Amino acid sequence: MSQSAFVRYRSLVDLDLSQNHITYILPRTFSNLLQLQMLTLSRNKITNILPGTISHLPQLQRLCLDYNQITTIQTGVFSNLSHLRQLLLSFNQITTIQPHAFLNLLQLRRLMLSSNQISNIQSDTFSNLPRLQTLALSRNKIINIQPSTFSNLPQLRSLSLHYNQITNILPGAFSNISLLQQLYLNNNKIKTIQSGAFSNLPKLEILRLHSNKITTIQPSMFSDLPKLLQLTLNSNRMVTLPSTAYSMLSAISSIRVSSNPWQCNCSMLPFRLKMSGSQSFENQITCSQPAKFQEQKLKDISPEDLNCEEPTIVSFQRANNNTLVQGNTLELHLVCEASGIPQPDITVTLPSGLNANAESGGRVTVDVNGTIAITNVTAADAGQYICTAGNPAGYASSTLSVDVLLNLPKTTTNASPLSVGTTGSSTHLTSNGNLVSSPTFYQPVPAASTFSSPVLVHSPPSEEPESHPNLPVSVPIATIAGAAAGTVLIGSIVFTICWKRWTRNRSVGPDPGVVSNSTDTRATVTTRGAPDTTVTVTTDGAPDTRATVTTGGAPDTTVTVTTDGAPDTTVTVTTDGAPDTMATVTTGGAPDTTVTVTTSGHDHM
User: Is 154 found in the same domain as 71?
Assistant: First the structure.
């Protein structure tokens, strides 16, 4: 749209350009329309309004920019609109309102910002709007309302915040708007209304809080609302009402409390005793629990029948025996099942001494049905867990001991061509807090690689014997295969070196240690199954060494080989299934080394 489009229409009062395909308006396009009072640009495809585009229209009173694609309201875009009374910006895609975007709109009465993408409101967003009476912010993504957000709106009468994502109402959220008459907060995610949230609203007549997640109300919440005529609390999560709420609700001419999960038990007895049948809200309280009163009106139940039952913990155990967790996210699931009237609230005391319940967040969560989930399990999660179930009739608790069997991740590097693996350890944290370590063999992996080992979480045996779940087959097979490979390789080297030394020094007599520094050495060693054998071989750097070691299945064999950097070495080791074999090989950086290991798959180190 060009700047000269309306040069000839200086006396134009009402300009309607709605339902076109306008995407962009040049600055000062309307600057010659000094008599213009109404400008309608609704239902176009405008994405941005630049400063100077709509300014300098001294008589403009109504500006409609709704149903476009505007994303940002820039500072100064509405400057010099001294007579503007209505500004419609609803149904856009606004995410950002820059500071002082509405500065000096001294006559503005109505500001509509509904159905946008606004999530945050700066404290000075609505500053210097002394005559604003209606502010609509419904159907956005607002989560929090900061204190004093609306404090510079002394004439505000109606504030719409429904269909947002507000979770909490803080004291001071509606301060200094003493003329407010209508406040719409329905269809949010409000759980808590803090005391003083609605203070200093002496003119408020309509307060809508329905379709939230409010669990309880206190009469003090509404004590500073003497003019309140309509209060909606239906479709929340309230289960009981204190006796003091009866007089407060009775003073409001229109009250809605239906569609809440009311629990008709001893906790509602004081309120039930106040009921006389004269108030309309008495017909709205329909019982959800206990089952025997489901769908009955509270007013129809005799006070003598409103009983409570002390909590009983039916079971406290692992969920579906799902104790073996693999992968990067390690989780432990427990279930504390409790019964009672009303349904007890569950609190879990962790081994650390901290408590978690349905309101908690973070690494430990507790569902209202008693399901406990612990993510990123560590050894610190082992110990005693205490489940406490409580309701107005009392408390019950149960304990569960949890052991954590945790294979710690290890990192290995290829320090030498003859390196056959590294030895790590697995740590078992028992229920009494003792750490038990056992060796674990890891196959060689490229430098900087890490193993992420599974975590086994289990509880100790109870009255009925319970076997711990087995580790996945892939983990022990990899461990055994790596151990066997290392055993065979080391045994071959040791055997070869021993043979060399024996052939060279056989006149001296038998010697369990073999030292060789000759070149082009060939050695073949056969133990013929001799158990509990210890072999130490040192080549002293002898090059071109060939060694063949056959243990013949000898158990409990310990082999130590040191080549001292002997190049061009070939070692062949065959254990023939020898169990409990330990072998250590130090190559000293020997080049051109060839190692062949054959094992039948017994326990090796």
Answer: no
User: Considering the chain, what is the average pLDDT of its residues?
Assistant: 77
Residues 486, 553, single domain; the answer is yes
pLDDT tens readout for residues 150-187: 988 999 999 999 999 999 998 888 988 999 999 999 99
Residue 445 resides in a domain: no
Look at residue 140 and tell me if it is in a domain: yes
Strand, helix or coil at 205?
coil
- The reply to whether 173 and 257 lie within a common domain is no
314 and 393 co-located in one domain = yes
Residue 462 lies in a domain: no
Q: Per residue in 509-528, pLDDT tens?
A: 434 333 444 445 555 555 55
Can you tell me whether residue 12 is helix, strand or coil?
coil
How does DSSP classify residue 92? S
Asked, for residue 98, whether it belongs to a domain, the answer is yes
Strand bridging mode 355-357 / 345-349 = antiparallel
At which of 307, 334, 364 does a domain end? 307
**CATH code assigned at 45:** 3.80.10.10
Residue 534 phi/psi, 5° resolution?
-120, 125
pLDDT tens across 107-129, in order? Answer: 999 999 999 999 999 888 998 89
Q: What is the pLDDT of residues 365-410, one digit of tens each?
A: 998 888 999 988 888 888 899 999 998 889 999 999 888 776 655 5
Look at the chain and report how many structural domains it folds into. Answer: 5
Model confidence band, residue 422 (pLDDT cutoffs 50, 70, 90): very low
Residue at a domain's end among 276, 307, 338: 307
Q: How confident is the model at residue 326 (pLDDT cuts 50, 70, 90)?
A: very low
- What is the DSSP pairing of strand 158-160 with strand 206-208? unpaired
pLDDT greater at residue 9 or residue 490: 9
| Region 416-425 average pLDDT | 34
Q: Provide CB contacts within 8 A for 506, sequence distance 6+.
A: none
DSSP codes, 135-198? EE--SS------TTTTTT-TT--EEE--SS---EE-TTTTTT-TT--EEE--SS---EE-TTTT
| Residues 519 and 592 reside in one and the same domain | yes
Same domain, 298 and 321: no
Domain span including residue 503? 475-598
Tokens 């240690």 belong to: 513
Q: What is the DSSP track for 468-531? A: PPPPPTHHHHHHHHHHHHHHHHHHHHHHHHHHHHHHHHTTT---SEEE---SS-EEEEE-TT-S
